[in-house]
Specification:
Layout (H helix, E strand, L loop, with lengths): L15 H17 L14 E2 L10 E5 L5 E3 L2 E3 L4 H10 L5 E6 L5 H13 L4 E4 L2 E2 L5
Parallel strand pairs: 1-7, 2-5, 5-6
Antiparallel strand pairs: 2-3, 3-4
Length: 136
């Protein structure tokens, strides 16, 4: 009777390609991430119990307590607000605007900004609020 010898197969796992793929994925996600810095204008947001974080803020309009209106940290005159908003919204995929108004801003001014946003072609207008438990 003849004995058969099995050939042992040596498994060699080369992890260099795996490291390359993980590194490329890391670079892809780092470059694909958006980092949105908060506006440099100091305002006191009104408080609301139902306030929630908005992650997809695209265009930010800030109204300070003295009535100054800014789009992306650039001051805008009220009479040219609609044209400036339309110019900013023109090249955007999601035409959403978030209004960050100081709590001391008159309602009339906030409504004017909302009206100009809709006339400029905004699909959604959101008013930013702070949480009551985190009074600012």
């Amino acid at each position: 009777m003849e004995l058969y010898r099995r050939k042992k197969t040596v498994i060699d796992l080369n992890i260099a390609p795996l490291i390359d793929i993980v590194f490329l994925l890391l670079i892809f996600f780092m470059l694909g991430s958006k980092f949105i810095a908060d506006q440099g204008i100091t305002i006191k947001l009104p408080a609301a119990d139902s306030a929630a974080a908005q992650n997809n803020t695209i265009l930010s309009v800030v109204i300070t307590g003295d009535g100054t209106i800014s789009i992306n940290n650039r001051e805008v005159k009220p009479e040219s607000l609609e044209q400036e908003l339309a110019r900013h919204l023109d090249g955007m995929h999601e035409k959403n605007i978030i209004i960050r108004a100081d709590r001391d801003v008159p309602l009339d001014l906030a409504v004017q900004v909302m009206d100009a946003s809709k006339k400029a072609g905004a699909e959604g207008v959101t008013i930013a609020t702070g949480r009551k438990d985190r009074e600012q």
